[in-house]
Amino acid sequence: ISSQTNPLLQSTAPSEENCDLNGDGACNTFDLFIVLDDYGKNEKDLLGDMNRDGSVNALDYTLMTSRISRL
Hints:
Blueprint: H1 29-38, H2 58-70
Helix pairs in contact: 1-2
């Protein structure tokens, strides 16, 4: 899911600290679904790219699951 193709998500920038990818105010499985939907993609501005390295992979999955497990 790209912030460029979905204007509702443009204000939500993923980062290692911010796991609320869909902007609903919570870090939960809905955000994990974004990572899973983007998994394996190598595109610019993917919301699931938690570490902003240009691809969504196991590192992003691990970041997301570690954030969810701390809550």
